[in-house]
Amino acid sequence: MQMIQSFIYSITNVRLSLYEQRILLKIVEHAQSRVKGLMMKDNLMKLDHDFDNVRMDIPMKDLLDEGNQHYDKIRKAAKDLCSRNFEFYDSESRTWFNTPVIFNASHRERSGLITFYVSRVLFDVILDFSKGYRQYNLQTALEIPTPYASRLYALMCGQQSPLQLGIVMLKKMFGVSDRYAQTADFIKKVIIPSQKILDEKGCTSFTFSRVREGSKVVALLFHPVVREEPTKKQLAAQISLGYFVSQDIKIILIQRAHFTVRELGAHKLLLEEFSKMPESVSVLMAIIDRFLSGCKSKGYIISAMRSEVAEFKSGK
After folding, report:
1. 316: which of 19, 21, 188, 288 is 20 to 30 A away, CA to CA?
2. What's the pLDDT tens digit per position in 190-219?
């Protein structure tokens, strides 16, 4: 999914862990309903919205790497975000804001969901495009293994000209003002590893040069390195089946309908959408019952699943 994120939000001073960063990416995703259909170059403004304090329910598996079931890491990230304040100053209205990033976080056992609330103020900042915007691939951002690299990725996406950011601002942006007294250490431990990660992933990255006042490095000039990113279908081909389909769905298709893992692998995106439907297991069992009673081909099952997904999406 292509994400559109305000430039202001991309450089806001919040120190984040990897899983905190991923939760925030999902919050930005939620805000996308307000920018659908807009030509952003014609709408560089603060967009109005009707969000108040929004409740969000996020599948925890969407925040974890494939095969990782350590929900405690997500709970810790949510707890940390509840105690971490989001601070922002609006120079136009001369208004200072300070709010928890999220609040009232909860996780009911066996639900697979992390639930929390997001302040309206945070959505105000996410939807403030008056200073520009960044458009990037959500799946790529979620897969980047460090919060520093993830934020730099978002900054570079859509950036066509060099971008200069002061060292002081960069340290505040990453929440490390108290960690690296020496600029050389900051560049060595934060900027260069992030550049290497983005280059290795083959996604949009950057090169950079040092801006000096005398002998002192006071800023970095980032030069975007734009790379064509894989489509959703291409990304799916690189990820195992287990990421897309629930274990119950997979077992039923293999044991009752005699699909092979390879055959199912050709329909990962369909299986992902089908698995998200309410009562998907019951619907699949009914499809397979018809398949078995009518001596139909496996193609019937795939076609029927696709029809169910289309009907669900249409709201019928």
Report:
1. 288
2. 999 999 999 988 888 999 999 999 999 999
